[in-house]
Amino acid sequence: MKAIEIRNKYLEYFKSKGHAVIPSAPLIPENDPSVLFTTAGMQPLVPYLLGEKHPEGTRLTDYQKCLRTNDIDEVGDNRHLTYFEMLGNWSLGDYFKEEAVAMSFEFLTKVLNIPVEKLSVTCFAGDEDCPKDTVTAECWEKMGIPKERIYFYGKDDNWWIAGETGPCGSDTEMFYDTGKPACGQNCQPSCDCGKYVEIWNNVFMEYFKHEDGTYTKLKQQNVDTGLGIERMAMLLQGKETPFDIELFKPVMDKLKELAKNDEIESRRIVAEHMRASIMLIADGGRPSNVDRGYILRRLIRRMTRHLNKLQIDLNELGNLIELNIEALKEMYPILLSKKDEIKEVIITEKDKFQKTLISGEKEFNKVMAKLKQEGKTTIESADIFRLYETFGFPPEVTKDVAAENGLTVNMDEVDKLFKEHQEKSKMGSDKKFKGGLAGTGEEETKYHTATHLLNAALKVTVSKDCHQKGSNITAERMRFDFSCDHKLTDEEKKKTEDLVNKWIQEELEVKFETMQKEEAVKSGAECMFIEKYPDEVTVYSIGTVSKEICGGPHVTNTKELGHFKIVKEEASSAGVRRIKAILE
Are 531 and 509 in contact (CB under 8 A)? Predict the structure, then answer.
């Protein structure tokens, strides 16, 4: 069964169970620079999991484009991907464990026709924060999964939370038995031997974890699920890896045909990173030296390095991109209209990297000359890391060129340095997510509402042509970008601050209503990226001073905000200014 068939069957099935089909959110989260990428289907839905009313109702389903950065260096093996598609269904205070389990079982066994004997499941074993999930286990047994294939694990395996704080809960995971021999007498889903492959995860989201590590109950019990489409397609097609399914195979085959030095890991890296780059660029991503742009740059450069390793003429890159888009067009038709743009971005970045490699070789020659002068034959691992970090010169290239010149490298030390670097990068990525949607608590809710007031105030005190261009919110402060052609005067800043505080003191009520998108625009509601919203939207009004299409969360009255203070005003980019403010 092809990936597109699995997706269509999934959406149709849950639609038949009363779920509204909502569009995939972009890979680059809108209006939230604190999160690098959309990493899971639940990420855009956090406000609704916390109690906001979704305009499409309490039962939702979608496919979600996802990109995770922690596994970039693992890509090349038989299973890791950076970009993947996740199918999901949600209950926002509607059904819970019993119905979720029943629907998952029916979809797997009746729609996808997976034999029951191929399925095993896991449930939460319980601890001081949450009791053992015997309810879910009983539901699975009732469906037809025998007790001996129902396993209980702790928080490391059967508990889900995005980041360090936020909505969370126990989960139940479904595993597919590949038929491979057991690794031992106690072989079970927790093994990494390859016999069991996780295919679906149902999270029973009923808690909120606070920064002090305590848990409280959410306003409502939610169900949040995720099914990886590439993995499911691989299993249903009887393939060994995701790189053998139709989304990758044409590109993998072409790379093998073109390669003069065929290495399977390099082919996988090129195919995977090319697909991830294509999807990122289609959603507005561009290479740069920071944050999201750096990840895209890293993907393209790693892809280029491995094209060189395969000894494939880099002039073939344009044709490879077209072949990749051809393999993906049924899943993502928009790629066809963006084909020229995607090719230009990737090829331009490839050309820049070629120059980087040349400058790296020059720097390597300096390192080599110094070593010979000092009578040494081993290149220091710190120099190898510097060549990579500063000049983009890959360690494996350093190793090859060193060998050609009679020098050695200690790759164990190099690996240690890189692991330390990756750990720091991972921590930085985790902090990004912590400051984003997953950290939507009481303070973030106040700041989110305050951005509406600031947006409205700027139209009065500075210019009616001021419009929001982005925002970044944490529990400690807000950052607000807006269109403006000049640096604000002290008087403009003072008037803006005073007007926001005046509205706060007036104790304005915050109301919301759902309406058709066109109707909302006609009513005067402001919105960024209007084309990305579904047909039915939520419109928030603050008294008569602000009206915006928004997903929340918000306070119910401005009196909850405290005192608004502008801390700094500065340039953000051409024609865009930035205000940093706090609530006291």
Answer: no
CA 193: distance to chain centroid?
27
- Separation in Å, CA 113 to CA 5, 127, 132, 376: 13, 36, 30, 64
Q: Are 26 and 36 in contact (CB under 8 A)?
A: no
What are the pLDDT digits (tens) for 436-482? Answer: 334 466 788 889 899 999 999 999 999 999 988 888 887 788 999 89
Q: What is the mean pLDDT of residues 484-498?
A: 95
Highest mean pLDDT (candidates 81-95, 278-292, 429-443, 444-458): 81-95
pLDDT at position 185 is: 78
Amino acid sitting at position 185: Q
- Give CA separation, 232 vs 112, 114, 152, 197, in Å: 10, 11, 23, 9
Distance between CA atoms of residues 248 and 243, nearest Å: 5
- And the tokens for 1? 């069964």
The rounded distance, in Å, linking the Cα atoms of 370 and 391 is 18
pTM across the whole model: 0.73
**What Rg value do the Cα atoms of the chain yield, rounded?**
26
Distance CA 479, CA 576 (A): 13
Residue 344's pLDDT is 96
Neighbours of 57 (CB within 10 A): 15
DSSP string of 181-224, one letter each residue: PPSSTT--TT--SSSEEEEEEEEEEEEEE-TTS-EEEEEEEEEE
Categorize the per-residue pLDDT at 539 as very low, low, confident or very high, splitting at 50, 70 and 90. Answer: confident
Mean pLDDT lowest among 33-42, 259-268, 492-501: 33-42
List pLDDT tens digits, range 299-325. 998 899 889 889 999 999 999 999 999
Q: CA 77, 78, 81: angle at the middle one, nearest 5?
A: 75
Give me 315's structure tokens. 């002039």
CA 406 to chain centre: 44
Cα 577 from Cα 559, distance rounded (Å): 27
Q: Which residue has the tokens 């700041």?
A: 447
The CA-atom distances, in angstroms, between 452 and each of 23, 195, 513, 545, 553 are 25, 52, 16, 9, 12
d(CA 23, CA 561): 33
Q: What's the rounded Cα separation, in Å, for the pair 313 and 73?
A: 24
Instruction: Compute CA 378 distance to the chain's CA centroid, rounded to the nearest angstrom.
Output: 41
d(CA 197, CA 175): 5
Q: Measured between alpha carbons, how far is 302 from 269 in angstroms, rounded to an integer? A: 8
CA end-to-end distance (rounded Å), the chain: 57
Q: Beta-carbon neighbour count of residue 523 at 10 Å?
A: 13
Q: Give me 8's structure tokens.
A: 């269509």
pLDDT given at position 154: 94
- Average pLDDT (80-98) is 96
Q: At 482, is the secondary structure helix, strand, or coil?
A: strand
